[in-house]
Design goal:
The protein is of the alpha+beta class. Helix 5 runs antiparallel to helix 6, helix 9 packs antiparallel against helix 10 and helix 9 crosses helix 15. It is elongated, with a radius of gyration of 33 Å.
Length: 683
């Protein structure tokens, strides 16, 4: 039923008190609309005020209009029940809205959730709402969060109202009385915890909100030192921030710390201090904070769910890559063996060349799958980033084209611990994406800055003790991405490209390589303003690894003996054939125990090289290499694999002193690697 004239008059009178209608946009309200969009995961959100004839948007996200007629306003229905959040899962199925012009036409609203803005006197004057073009369900957590945003918006409006009142009263010499009233109302309606501390940390004032958040009334804290409630492990950091507040003007950096609750637990607070000791109206350190315990818990839960989902996909892709690489190695090896036995200009030789080209393309796909699944074998080394980028710069310029400018900036020497070949793929992939995002030209920038991260900022997968990183920022001036696309860019096979363009696993691969190296990657993007990827790379000094040299081999006149181990029969046959034809003595085995049995049969005969697959039933190639090294010291080892999840990837790279050959490999590459290991002299 329509509102009574009395209700409308009360609303208009209450609304007039805030003097917000038809005012310019304000940052605080814009941020509230953005948070409503983010919390509810919708492309549109507004802070809406309702007068007699229209709904007017003080702030909005995803909408170009500033007002609409009140007879078509969802928000006008939402304020009919001020104590509730009105949720419309699908407007097409709701008799109140199915014929609404904003449902049948642009912006084609389907989902709506609105939390009323209610004055302290209980009068609804508007809403904070989220809107989507597709139907959706709305969880209790999001409903409560939207209601909390409405209370926070109302607190902001109260703050503005009392600030204006204070200014008016000051003109008639009532500044002190109004400032007290302003402060009282501000703290009473604030969602923040507002504290005033003496220079020694003694609490002089606590807002009423502290009882809601921490269980004790303000009187419990007044006269006591704030630091007795801080968690012992956070004491030093909080004291440092407090000392900084004592010696500087303005707000201190935001800090997080644990604070004692009435129930004996600790809650995570986030806040900042402002030194007003010289202000005769305050004479203290004003500290604003809020309880972020639940928000941090939910963020951790979302991140955990993301990791579990990606890990499940990674296991699947890694397993597929393992089997596929074995098959590709066999196909490629058989094609090469056959090609050696047919005339070079025969049709069959051409067919075999096509087979080899196809296997190379398939091998590139499995390489991307392994990088995404963090199963690629890294062969890291000390990399001086500035020099490395200078070498890569001409290739980047050629890839980007003449319409895109390239800027490379480094600040001092940055030694990082990276696999150059894999890291080059990361940079080239980001450059390729940037080129596609800037069809009309622009600037592509790489900037490297060394920095130290504290224990809270360091990634969970980072190297133990690593605090020094180099941040490589990769920036373009392209189309940018909205929040919905940004949330999905690391999903496997997600793409915004048109049909017919291969989506690949580009960004999945990039993040997999960076994180497997002990670093991490974050991204910021804004529609129409471009994108920046921040790659945090562990510095070399943070890595403490001693890498012994590969055992030396004394060149002898007799034929070298090679033990070739693989659980795939075709690969054993191909390996034995090509190595015998190359003039080596070859012993084949199907797994670790079989290899040790064949080794025992050799007696005192020297074993020169062990060539083994990594993943085998019963005993991995790494375990076999360790046992052979114990039984036959000085034996060279060549590990071969296309999937290294358990044996190598979890440690971030190869065991020290062991060579590696990824599958699929060509027979020529296998022979070159074997020859290299057998002829290398002691360093």
């Amino acid at each position: 039923m329509p509102p009574s004239s009395t209700d409308v008059r009360k609303r208009l009178d209450a609304l007039a008190n805030y003097e917000l209608l038809d005012t310019a946009p304000e940052k605080e309200f814009d941020e509230l609309a953005v948070r409503a969009s983010q919390i509810c995961d919708t492309p549109m959100a507004t802070v809406t005020l309702l007068d007699e004839y229209r709904q007017w948007f003080k702030a909005s996200v995803g909408l170009k209009v500033r007002e609409t007629p009140i007879e078509d306003a969802f928000c006008a229905r939402a304020i009919e029940h001020p104590e509730e959040v009105m949720v419309v899962p699908n407007a097409l199925h709701d008799a109140r809205f199915r014929h609404n012009p904003f449902v049948t036409g642009g912006p084609e609203i389907r989902f709506y959730a609105g939390a009323p803005l209610v004055t302290p006197e209980g009068i609804p004057i508007g809403t904070v709402c989220s809107i989507d073009r597709k139907p959706r369900r709305f969880s209790r957590v999001k409903r409560d969060a939207l209601r909390g945003l409405a209370r926070e918006t109302m607190a902001l409006m109260e703050k503005i109202r009392w600030r204006k009142a204070l200014e008016a009263e000051r003109k008639v010499s009532e500044g002190l009385r109004m400032s007290e009233a302003y402060f009282r109302h501000l703290t009473e309606y604030s969602l923040d915890l507002i504290s005033i501390l003496e220079a020694d940390g003694t609490i002089r004032f606590e807002s009423r909100s502290i009882e809601r958040e921490l269980g004790h009334a303000p009187a419990h804290y007044r006269g006591r030192n704030a630091f007795e409630f801080v968690h012992p492990e956070d004491y030093a950091a909080v004291m440092s921030a407090f000392q900084e507040a004592l010696v500087r003007r303005g707000n201190t950096p935001v800090i997080r710390f644990r604070f004692l609750h009435a129930d004996g637990s600790y809650r995570l607070l986030e806040g900042s201090g402002n030194n007003l000791l010289d202000d005769p109206m305050v004479h203290g350190i004003v500290f604003n904070s809020r309880d972020v315990t639940e928000r941090v818990r939910l963020q951790a839960e979302v991140e955990c769910n993301r990791f579990e989902k990606e890990d499940m996909i990674a296991r699947l892709t890694g397993g597929v890559a393992h089997d596929f690489n074995n098959i590709l190695t066999a196909v490629q090896g058989l094609a090469e063996l056959t090609q050696m036995r047919v005339p070079a200009r025969s049709p069959e030789a051409g067919y075999l060349a096509e087979i080899q080209a196809a296997t190379k393309r398939a091998a590139e796909l499995t390489r991307q799958m392994l990088a995404f699944s963090r199963r690629v074998v890294l062969q890291p080394q000390a990399l001086e980033l500035a020099s490395w980028l200078r070498v890569l710069e001409p290739r980047l310029a050629l890839l980007l084209g003449s319409d895109i400018g390239l800027t490379v900036a480094t600040h001092g020497e940055s030694l990082v611990w990276q696999d150059p070949a894999q890291f080059e793929q990361v940079i080239l992939q980001l450059a390729t994406n940037a080129r596609e995002a800037m069809p009309n030209g622009g600037i592509f920038t790489l900037e490297a800055i060394p920095m130290a991260l504290d224990s809270h900022e360091r990634p969970a997968n980072g190297h133990d003790g690593a605090t020094k990183y180099t941040r490589l920022s990769v920036t373009d001036q392209g189309f940018g991405m909205d929040a919905e696309v940004l949330a999905r860019i690391f999903e496997p096979f997600f793409t915004t490209k048109t049909v017919g363009h291969h989506p690949g696993l580009g960004l999945c691969m990039c993040r997999g390589i960076v994180e497997q190296s002990g670093g991490y990657l974050i991204v910021h993007s804004y529609p129409g303003r471009g994108t920046v990827f921040h790659l945090f790379l562990p510095s070399l000094e943070a890595i403490n690894e001693e890498i012994p040299p590969i055992p030396s081999f004394e060149t002898r006149a007799d034929v070298p003996t090679i033990l070739f181990v693989d659980d795939e029969p075709m690969l054993r046959e191909i390996g034995e054939t090509i190595l015998l034809e190359a003039g080596y003595r070859v012993i084949v085995a199907e797994d670790g125990p079989d290899a040790l049995s064949r080794l025992a049969e050799l007696g005192t005969t020297r074993l020169d090289l062990l060539v083994t697959d990594v993943i085998m039933p019963g005993m991995t190639g790494v375990q076999l290499a360790e046992e052979v090294g114990r039984l036959r010291p000085g034996t060279r080892v060549l590990l071969c694999s296309g999937y290294t999840r358990d044996a190598l990837a979890q440690s971030g790279g190869l065991p020290a002193g062991i060579a590696f050959l990824p599958k699929p490999y060509t027979l020529a590459v296998l022979l070159d690697k074997v020859s290299e290991l057998l002829t290398a002299q002691a360093g």
